[in-house]
Amino acid sequence: MIPENKKDVVNKALQTAFRTTEIEDIRQLTAGLSSALVYRIVVKGKPYLLRIIMRTDEFVNPEREYNCMKAGAEIGVAPKVWYTSVEDKIAITDFIDAKPFPVDEARLKMPQVLKKLHSLPPFPVVQYIEAAARFNEKFKEAKLMPAEATDEIFQQFDRINKAYPRKTEDIVSSHTDLKPENTLYDGERLWLVDWEAAFSNDRYADLAIAGNFLITNDKEEQEYLQNYFDEEVSEYHLARFFLMRQIIHTFYFTCFILLSNPTGPIDINTTRPGYREFHEGVWSGEISLADMGNRRLYALIHMDQLKQNLQSPRFEESMRVVQSA
User: Fold this and answer.
1) 199 C-beta neighbours (distance < 10 Å), count
2) Where in the chain does DSSP place strands (E)?
3) Domain termination residue (choose one: 46, 61, 94)
4) What CATH number is associated with residue 171?
5) Distance separating alpha carbons of residues 180 and 213, to the nearest angstrom
6) Statement: residue 150 has pLDDT above 80
7) For residues 30 and 290, what is the distance between their CA atoms, to the nearest angstrom?
8) CA torsion sign, 194 to 176 to 303 to 108?
C-alpha cells in the first residue's frame, strides 16, 4: 500500500519514532483533496496518522506545514506530532477517531479553537485576497463560462479587494482550510488536521471558511462572532465578516471549477441543490468533494450564493461600513 520508493523513509520514520518498523494494520484515507498520501497505521497497538507529501509547489511546503502543525500541537489544537522529516516529506501524528460533530456544538467550539490558534506567533504570510484574484484571472483565461455569467462577480470582487481593510493586527496564524475532514471531533474536543494550507492570513478568513458550514441565520452569526471576539459584535465586525465570506465564495467558485478538471465549457444550467443543503451534506460526510462532479456542483453553488449576496442590501451596507471606517 505504501509506494515502493517510500518504504525506506517510512521505515526510518517508524524506527525513529517507535523503535520498530512493524505496522500491525494500515488503511489509506482518501477523504481530503490533497495530493499527499494519508494512512491510518497501528504500531504497538496504537493508531497513528502517517502522511507522505508527494509533490511540492508554491503552496505545498513541508517545512512550513510541519512548523505550523507543531505550533498547533503545542497549544493543543492539533494532534501530537511524533515525527517529521522535511527531507523525506513524512509526518506521523496521533490519529483522531472522529465522531459526528453536531453543527450546534461546532458553532460553539470553532471560535474558541480559532482564537487560540490566532494567538500564536505569526506563520509565514500569504496574501490571500491577492491569491484569490490570481485564481480569478486563471478562471477567465480558461474561458469556461460566458463572460456575462461572471462579469458581476469579478467586478464586485475588485471593489471588495480595493475596500477591504488590511490591518496588521488582523493578520494572524491561520489554518485556512477548515473543511469538515480537517476539523475532527473526538466526542469532547475539536482538532485541526492537515496543515498544508496554513499561513498567516486575515483572521476573518478562518472565521468565514468555517462559518460557511456553521451559520444559517443572523442570530447564529452574532453568537459565533461574539464567541470569538468576547465582546459585543459591532457593525464593523459584521461587515468585515460578510465581505470576507464573499471573497471565500469567489475563491471557492473559481478554485473548485478549476479543480474539477473541466475538459470544456461548464454547463451553468445544470440542476443542483441549494447552498445550505449541499453544505449540510458535506458536513455530514454524505457528499465527498473528492468526486469531480461534486467539486463542480460545489463551485456553482458558491456562485449562486455569491450572486444572491451581491444583490442584497447588506452588501452595499458592508462596503459602506468598511470604507467609512
Assistant:
1) 23
2) 25-29, 37-43, 46-52, 81-85, 90-94, 171-174, 183-185, 190-192, 199-202
3) 94
4) 3.90.1200.10
5) 8
6) yes
7) 8
8) positive
Same domain, residue pair 200 and 277: yes
Cell readout for 241 is 465578516
Per-residue CA distances from 243 to 31, 40, 248 (Å): 29, 38, 9
Would you tell me how many other CB atoms lie within 10 Å of the CB of residue 259?
16
Q: How far is it, in rounded angstroms, from Cα 136 to Cα 255?
A: 8
Of the candidates 65, 94, 123, which is a domain's last residue? 94
Residue 177 is part of which domain span? 103-324
Q: What nine digits make up the cell of 4? A: 515502493
pLDDT interval class at 125 (50, 70, 90): confident
Question: Is there a single domain that holds both residue 12 and residue 30?
Answer: yes
Which pTM does this prediction carry?
A: 0.94
What is d(CA 265, CA 142) in angstroms, rounded to the nearest whole number? 9
For residues 151-165, average pLDDT: 97
Which cell numbers in the block locate residue 138?
486563471
pLDDT, tens digit, for every residue of 199-208? 999 999 999 9
Q: Which of 232, 251, 240, 203 is nearest to 317 (CA)?
A: 240
Contact (CB, 8 A) for 298 and 256? yes
Same domain, 145 and 183: yes
Query: How many domains is the chain built from?
Result: 2
Q: Are residues 149 and 22 in the same domain?
A: no
Residues 122 and 246 in one domain: yes
Q: Please indicate, yes or no, whether residues 256 and 167 belong to a single structural domain of this protein.
A: yes
For residues 216 and 30, give the distance between their C-alpha atoms in angstroms, rounded to a whole number: 29
- Reply yes or no on whether the pLDDT at 58 is more than 70: no
Q: Helix (H, G, I), strand (E, B), or coil: what is residue 201?
A: strand
* CA distances (Å), origin 209, targets 111, 178, 252: 12, 6, 10
Interatomic CA distance for residues 204 and 239, integer angstroms: 11
Please check whether residues 69 and 142 belong to one and the same domain. Answer: no
Question: Is the model's pLDDT at 271 over the cut of 80?
Answer: yes
Q: Are 170 and 273 within one domain?
A: yes
Q: Which residue carries 459565533 as its cell?
A: 224
